[in-house]
UniProtKB/TrEMBL annotation:
SUPFAM superfamilies: Thioesterase/thiol ester dehydrase-isomerase. This is Thioesterase domain-containing protein. It holds the Pfam family 4HBT. InterPro entries: HotDog_dom_sf (IPR029069), PTE-AB_protein (IPR052061), Thioestr_dom (IPR006683). Residues 169-223 form the Thioesterase domain. It comes from the Eukaryota. PANTHER family: UPF0644 PROTEIN PB2B4.06. It comes from Aspergillus carbonarius (strain ITEM 5010).
Amino acid sequence: MYSSPRILHSPLRLFAKPPQLPCRHMFRAVRHTSTGAHKTLPQPSRWPRRLAYAAIFSGLGIAAGKWVDNKFAAPPLPGTEEDVKRLEEIHYIYERGLPIVQELREHPDYMEADVYGNYTEEDKLQRLSSGPLRGSRGLALQKIFYNDKEKAAINVAYVGPGLEGWPTVVHGGALGTVIDEHLARLAIRHLPQRTGVTANLQLKYRAPVYSGNFYTFHATLDEERSTERKAWVNGEVRDPVGRLCIEATALFVVPKTYQLQEVGERY
């Protein structure tokens, strides 16, 4: 509350005697006091500020409640109306909201492709990542960017809440599946037989991967160690701001005594 300044006087001054001057006449100090009353400034009303705070915190509470509901509610089943709507939103973000997609599209050495581009819809249902893990709850979207000149590939993938091991955190095994397939794509493009199997896969988890977001899966062929029947591939998983989440190294081989189906160029 506003109040006018006051001059504080010590109570001892009321009993102090006036000083004795060495002259014949005594002079009294005249103290002028104002006879007018102090004016009190009107106090601003606090209700507008209180209402503004109430509106802000109410909005934050509603937004937080919706976020919690979306995070912990059961994800929609593939093919439902809600699932289709979420898939449309995810595709929209991929097309308009990811700077790395625009950068890769503008790079002359990268070629964009869909996962399992040379597979039928029936064949896709028989694959783990494109069958049971399909829909907005799982691997809602995967787009591959190949760079044959540098022997590299980048997978821009959306990981949904159905892949969680802990709340909001994607299961390490689910991530291992995506990593294994992505590194294999690059290995198979190198192997003349256009097929192969995983002989060894090593993963180092550096940071959590959170559901409901896009991540980039990187793969680079180790040309010095690779042959016509063996392909060594190094990989990384990075979050939307480029932070390293997982490091990977894998060896893919073509069996000598077991005949494998040719996977093709767009696996």
